[in-house]
Design goal:
Helix content is 38%, strand content 19%. With 170 residues, it is α/β, with parallel strands linked by helices. A 6-stranded parallel sheet has the order 3-2-4-5-1-6, with helices on both faces. Helix 4 (75-95) packs parallel to helix 6. The relative contact order is 0.25.
Amino acid sequence: MGKIFLYIGTGAGKTTNALGLALRCAGHGLTCVIVQFMKGRKDIGEVKVQKMLEPYYEIYQFGREEWIDLKNPSEEDKRLAREGLEFARKVMKEKKPHLLVLDELALAAYVGLVDVGEVLKVLEEIPEETDVVITGRYSPPELIDRADFVNLVSEVKAPKELYTRIGINY
C-alpha cells in the first residue's frame, strides 16, 4: 500500500507543496492525478499547465467558482465533494497513478462535505504503487491518525492586507 501524506494548517502553501510533488513526479515520467475539492476555477495555474505536462499530469475539479460557506455548505457543495471522492476512488483503481493528490479533502471532511468514514474507506483501497497527498486547512482527527506523514503548515507572519498574485496564489 502506498503512503499517505497529510498537509494541514493555517499557513499558506499546502496546495503549492502538493503541486510541487506532482511536478516532481511528472519530471520523472511518473503519473500524477490531482483531484481538487471545493475548487472550480479554470483560470488557475495548476489547471492551465495540464496540457504542457500531459500525459503525466491530470487535474480535475469538484467545486464551484464561488467560495463555500464552511459553516453552512450547500447541498450542491456536498454533492460535488461526494462526486470528487467517488472519482478519486475510481481513478485510483483504474489508472493507479504514482501520486494521487486530494487537494482540500481534509477540509471537506472537516466541515462535513464528505463523510470521514467514506474517506477512510477510499484510503484502504490505495494501490501499492500509489502515494496519496491530502491537503486542507483543518482535518478530522481520524485522517491525522490514518496518515503516515502529517505536516503542519503554520503561519508565522503575513501582511494584514490580502495578498494575491498570479503565479503565486493561483
